[in-house]
Amino acid sequence: MNPRILSRPVPVFAALLLGACTHLTAYRDNHEPCPAGAVPSACADRPVQDVTVPSGGSYRIGYIEFDDQGHLFDRRQMDAVINPLIDDASSTDFLIVVFAHGWKHSAQGIPQDDPNISTFKGVLEQLTQTEQQISKLTKSRPRKVVGVYLGWRGLSATWPVVKELTFWDRKSTAHQVGEIGVAEVLMRLESLKDMRRAYLDSMPGKRRNSKAASCDEDREDERSRLVVVGHSFGGAIVFSALAQRFEERFINTACGPLQASRVRGFGDLAVLVNPAFEAMKFSTLSDMAYERHFYPPTQLPVLAVLTSEADGATGKIFPLGRWFSTLFEKERVYERRRGDGATQRVSEKSANRQTVGHFEPYRTHVLQPEGKLPKPVQGLSDVELLAATVQLLQGWRSDSGQTGSLRFGPLKFERGIHGSPRNPYLVTRVSGELIADHNDLGNPLMLDFIRGLILLKSQPEESLRAYSQYLLKR
Predict the structure, then answer these.
(1) How far apart are the first and last CA of the chain?
(2) Given CB 3.0 to 4.6 Å as the disulfide criterion, which of 80, 105, 255, 283 pairs with 101?
(3) 304 within a domain of the structure (yes/no)
(4) Residue 295, domain member (yes or no)
(5) 232, 274 contact by CB (below 8 A)
(6) Nearest alpha-carbon partner for 170 in 313, 16, 323
């Protein structure tokens, strides 16, 4: 048999595989801002767009993209998004929400937006609507709602079978993106809060009166907020970028190093949905939080990990791959001690193979429906969302005992024996009725819960109560 005939399938198959790969390119490479009111298709290659909300007000969405090595595709793109915010930082209060997408997604806008972009825009529109209404009621100036979408090549292949095999390659890329490029972007965005604080402190007439009653409370005049959300490998990106900041700010609390005061996070809140990274990377944070045990009533969540029990990618595929990659590592079982004297044994082998959300020793909460949900699942009305957020906040502050049960409207948010009251790091197992699989981001009730967490960290309780009462009277 002719050996050349036998050898032909190899280059042909290789060529087909290459053809299945997506291009390494930036989608938003026209660095001019998109004019206000322009049709969405005209903004598909722009890094910045101002979007008018039908009910009033507007939000800004910006896109910052990274290559497979974690570098910014073009620093001018980042500058186009962040520099206008820096120019306004001293005089403007912002509500900034950052979103890092995950596996099989991108920042593509042609021929239509990536589904994650569409979902993100919907959340920004709802936050803008709430911000406008609360500001009218409280007679305060509305904060400028800004969304920043962090794009990378989460979709690296288009063939269905090949696409599924990219899981491990994209995991490695995600950590690279987080450690190299995203960390800088997030630091720059957080600096906007520092600039606003410095401006407020420079006003002699307000300086004394604007301080909080204690270091354990928020300043009333500091209204800018920063929330970072990561989904799937986007969760790995966010955690890779911020893990050391979380550890440092656990030790350097709001009232100083090693004080029994509020634990500081990054910005105001980070939310990781179905994050695809091993529990071992989370071990230091979990150990510190477990050991401390006590948190003051002013402590609010700083990090929420939300993992679906129905997520097969992180629950089954991930441990299988980690079994091979950790086969020759030396691991042990260690014992950790909680502030109240309780102890727990932790297997490093299991922590090295399971994702953080599926690792039972680190789990603090379970989120599930109170009863049977209607089909299709309906989201909460504005009144119900605000009432549920206040309900969650009140339950959080009064939580005590070995276990606890909180409510968010029709959802139960139950704290287990591994979670101390007001532990600022929520590692939550989520019912499959709320997140159907690894890529699901569309359940209205789940989006409402995330919006509730954002509102809980971005609005005073009095404002939430007042707006809720106002809506009830309409």
Answers:
(1) 84
(2) 105
(3) yes
(4) yes
(5) yes
(6) 313
208 has pLDDT over 50: no
pLDDT for 7 = 46
Beta bridge partners of 344: 336
Q: Are 445 and 377 in contact (CB under 8 A)?
A: yes
- Percentage of the chain with pLDDT > 70? 93
| Contacting residues for 426 by C-beta, under 8 A, at least 6 apart | 301, 303, 304, 305, 306, 364, 365, 419
Q: What is the pLDDT of residues 101-153, one digit of tens each?
A: 999 999 998 888 999 999 999 999 999 999 998 888 888 899 999 999 999 99
pLDDT tier for residue 206 given thresholds of 50, 70 and 90: low
- Measured between alpha carbons, how far is 40 from 110 in angstroms, rounded to an integer? 10
Q: ∠ CA(401), CA(403), CA(408), 5° rounding?
A: 110
How many distinct structural domains can be found in the chain?
1
Give the helix/strand (H/E) hosting 344. strand 343-347
User: How many CA atoms are closer than 13 Å to the CA of 126, on its beta-carbon side?
Assistant: 21
Q: Is residue 16 part of a domain?
A: no
Ramachandran area for residue 258 (φ above 0: left; ψ -120 to 50: alpha; else beta) = left
Mean pLDDT of the chain: 89
Angle at 60 between CA 58 and CA 64, to 5 degrees: 165
The answer to whether residue 225 sits within a structural domain is yes
The 10s digit of each residue's pLDDT in 276-309 is: 999 999 999 999 999 998 999 999 999 999 999 9
Q: How far apart are CA 389 and CA 407, in angstroms?
A: 9
Q: Which residues are registered as beta bridge partners of 215?
A: none
Q: What angle do CA 411, 276, 358 make, to 5 degrees?
A: 55
27 touches 151 (CB < 8 A): yes
Which SS3 state, helix, strand or coil, does residue 424 take? coil
Alpha helices in 3-158 (DSSP H): 3-7, 9-20, 75-88, 115-138
- Distances from the Cα of 153 to the Cαs of 134, 200, 297, in angstroms? 38, 40, 42
User: 288, exposed or middle or buried, with CB in 10 Å at 0-12, 13-18, 19+?
Assistant: middle
The alpha-carbon radius of gyration of the chain (Å, integer) is: 23
Q: Taking the alpha carbons of 70, 71, 73, 79 in that order, is the dihedral positive or negative?
A: positive
User: Which two three-digit tokens encode residue 335?
Assistant: 């014992």
Say if residues 457 and 227 touch (Cβ distance below 8 Å).
yes
- Cis bond upstream, residue 160 (ω within 30): no
